[in-house]
UniProtKB/TrEMBL annotation:
Residues 1-19 form the signal peptide. Keywords: Calcium, Hydrolase, Metal-binding, Signal. Belongs to the sulfatase family. The lineage of its organism: Bacteria, Pseudomonadati, Lentisphaerota, Lentisphaeria, Lentisphaerales. Transmembrane segments: none annotated. Residues 25-386 form the Sulfatase N-terminal domain. This is Arylsulfatase. It comes from Lentisphaera araneosa HTCC2155. GO terms for molecular function: arylsulfatase activity; metal ion binding. The keyword Hydrolase applies.
Length: 523
């Protein structure tokens, strides 16, 4: 009986009569994959991203918007407003998704892109879905996990490129939504620029030869542009090049050629993201919906450092046969000005470019930059406030936890937000906690480091030894949250006796190992 009543009221809320005079906003949430903090023009990049730059110039950017530093856990937090393990991890058994919440509030819900969780999006409230269930896929030939509205979808042998095709289907879904008298929610999850690094040939040609100056020069250029754009509230020092990454001038010519081509290929994929987002936004504008559509653009983690191979001079990134991987040097450059990378809970792993655009409702000055610490867990509470939806107290077949995030609607309305709770970070042996201006972080179970994020966003001055009581208090906070949300006993009671300058992940690129001479051809 309880389930029948739940279904009755859900259908009542979704009825066309209720939605006839609906003025609530549409939602377009765009999540990209493995994008570095400085990878967009409006965040300091040399890459041409005019469409996203335009959204930023007419909207709002965030300088301290956080993800979880990992693909699947960021998706869980974005969809459920919970950290990934309390939500039920990939099963989502202790949570409801944004699609389910908005469905019950009368929204038409759609998704196009990478899922990377259990079951399928159509099992979690999405009325329309196209994309792949896998965490990564070949950009030209796909894989056997592609689905269209719950049914297998065969990737065509020609004319397929994931970034383009996902937007094709997103537009098709929106065309259908335009015939339905309801507000809509679209979740677009692009797998670019995640490996395999496979740009379109036409895009790669635009960037060939543009990265021959190397990562040292280009990182400094990005940070100079960030200062000119005023990305940060206070000056940010440059984090030094890590020990395992050589100076560009110390690389062999073969390694330089390899890394320059890798950077060109990644940049071409980012350029294509911008082109396709522009095409989607143009469609929304032509449909008359742009003014009342809240667009949020974010990444699931920082740039990826995992790749141990040198590229030989004959492979082509735009071939379906070759699967170029990432590399640590380019990741360091792309995460400027921060240190570390994807999976690490230092700023390079968890900081995302974040753009919000909503002409009808955004009350901040055009082009503003907000410096409030914000997280993916805050997105669903914000949409609930904007849509007048309600987070359910129960859901058939699941044992729900409450939301963890906090609405940032006051920021959208031109005000301020003071977080009630710290932001908790944990993936594998990497940990962090952000509480006001203070942050503790640890890599590979190393001793806690303490940073003042108002004056030291690049985490250069570890204050743990000079502030032992504060460090201890925040560490206890971290353990309390971990015990409440993840495990019954305190985590990480033992620590490795090392600091982060000594730490080297075996999956990071070791530029001293591969000294084989390869053909130095810029293909």
């Amino acid at each position: 009986m309880k389930n029948l009543l739940f279904l009755f009221f859900s259908l009542l809320l979704c009825s066309p009569l209720w939605a006839k005079e609906d003025k609530r906003p549409n939602f377009l949430i765009i999540l990209v994959d493995d994008m570095g903090f400085s990878d967009l023009g409006c965040y300091g990049s040399e890459i041409e991203t005019p469409n996203l730059d335009s959204l930023a110039a007419n909207g709002l950017r965030f300088s301290q918007f956080y993800n979880t530093a990992k693909c699947h856990s960021s998706r869980i937090s974005l969809l459920t407003s919970q950290y990934y393990l309390p939500a039920g991890n990939n099963s989502l058994k202790n949570s409801v998704t944004a699609a389910e919440v908005l469905n019950t509030a009368g929204y038409h819900t759609m998704m196009s892109g990478k899922w990377h969780l259990d079951n399928e999006p159509t099992d979690f409230g999405f009325q329309r879905y196209f994309g792949h269930l896998s965490g990564a896929t070949n950009f030209f030939s796909g894989d056997d996990t592609f689905r269209l509205n719950g049914k297998p979808w065969k990737v065509p042998s020609e004319g397929f490129y994931t970034t383009v095709t996902k937007v094709d289907f997103a537009i098709d879904f929106l065309k259908e939504a335009e015939t339905i008298d309801k507000p809509w929610y679209m979740y677009l999850a692009l797998n670019a620029p995640h490996a395999p690094i496979q740009p379109l040939n036409e895009d790669y040609e635009k960037f060939k030869g543009k990265y021959d100056a190397g990562w040292d020069v280009l990182r400094e250029q990005r940070m100079k542009k960030q200062r000119e754009l005023g990305i940060f509230k206070n000056p940010v020092k440059e984090s030094p090049r890590p020990n395992q990454i050589p100076a560009w001038d110390d690389l062999t010519p073969e390694w330089q050629s390899s890394e320059a081509r890798r950077l060109a290929a990644v940049s071409a994929m980012i350029y294509r993201i911008d082109v396709e987002v522009g095409r989607l936004v143009k469609h929304i504008e032509e449909a008359g919906d742009l003014d009342n559509t809240m667009i949020l653009f974010v990444s699931d983690n920082g740039a990826c450092p995992f790749g141990t191979s040198q590229l030989d001079g004959t492979t082509k990134p735009f071939s379906t046969k070759y699967k170029w991987r990432d590399s640590s040097g380019p990741a360091w450059m792309r995460n400027a000005p921060f240190k570390f990378y994807k999976q690490n809970q230092h700023e390079g792993g968890i900081s995302t470019p974040a753009i919000l655009h909503w002409p009808a409702g955004l009350k901040t000055a055009k082009g503003s930059i907000n410096h409030t610490p914000t997280h993916l867990i805050d997105v669903l509470p914000t949409m609930i406030d904007m849509s007048q939806a309600t987070y359910p107290s129960e859901w058939p077949g699941r044992k729900l936890n409450p939301m963890t995030g906090e609405s940032f609607l006051p920021i959208i309305e031109g005000g301020d937000v003071t977080r009630k709770n710290p932001i908790h970070f944990w993936y594998s042996t990497n940990r962090g906690l952000r509480d006001g201006k203070w942050k503790i972080a640890s890599i590979n179970d190393s001793p806690w480091e303490l940073y003042d994020m108002e004056t030291d966003r690049s985490e250069m001055n570890n204050l743990a030894k000079s502030n032992p009581e504060l460090t201890k208090r925040m560490a206890e906070q971290w353990n309390t949250i971990a015990a409440e949300n993840y495990t019954k006993k305190s985590a990480f009671t033992a620590q490795n006796d090392l600091d982060n300058t000594q730490y080297f992940n075996k999956r990071w690129t070791d530029y001293t190992k591969n000294k084989a001479k390869v053909a130095n051809k810029a293909k």
